[in-house]
Design brief:
- The complex is a heterodimer of chains A (about 110) and B (about 120).
- With about 110 residues, chain A is mainly β.
- Chain A has no helices and eleven strands.
- Chain A starts with a strand and ends with a strand.
- By secondary structure, chain B is mainly β.
- In chain B, the strands form two sheets. In chain B, strands 2, 4, 5, 6, 9, 10 and 11 form a seven-stranded mixed beta sheet that branches. In chain B, strands 1-3-8-7 form a four-stranded antiparallel beta sheet, with no helix packed on it.
- Classes of the chains: A mainly beta (about 110), B mainly beta (about 120).
- The interface between A and B is medium-sized, with 24 and 25 residues.
Chain lengths: ~110, ~120
Amino acid sequence: KNQVEQSPQSLIILEGKNCTLQCNYTVSPFSNLRWYKQDTGRGPVSLTIMTFSENTKSNGRYTATLDADTKQSSLHITASQLSDSASYICVVIGNTGGFKTIFGAGTRLFVKA
Amino acid sequence: EAGVAQSPRYKIIEKRQSVAFWCNPISGHATLYWYQQILGQGPKLLIQFQNNGVVDDSQLPKDRFSAERLKGVDSTLKIQPAKLEDSAVYLCASSLDRAGASYEQYFGPGTRLTVT
């Protein structure tokens, strides 16, 4: 069964600290993996898109890594800010006779002053 | 560039009533998606259109949900009759082409539906 599992479910950190969010998936064949940020009451906004040949991709203070062999991805946030408080959703696009979009449940990040 | 527009933003109805949501995608985007996001969960794809044709509606509860994109631009999603478990945020997204081609999906703000 194609699944995307994220951990932790929620996380509280102090402003200025770094954190890493995890994503494990069983989707196969794999087309690409995306990380989205979803602020409360808003739609998700794309942070990164990676194909299987890409190991890392950065977007400002956000750095995503991908290990297609172990089917794991991580999102690292550097020098967190209060505005980073949001849900971070890992999304995997599978290619199983048609492209399928599979969302993880998200990690809820709280950044405290 | 204007984003994906959705209306209404909020809707409260009683169970067994009907409701409709509207989405206007980004101009020129061929692919349109409707998602259901229950509180605390990731979005679940309900239906995907490529222009005005349905690409994937495998998770759409067809006994009560329907969607159309008649002219390949705007789309409406309808629920009739609504159940308590339909309470969720309904997100519309669009992309230049299909998701597997690595095109980004742009999401609207969503419609929060509460069924009482």
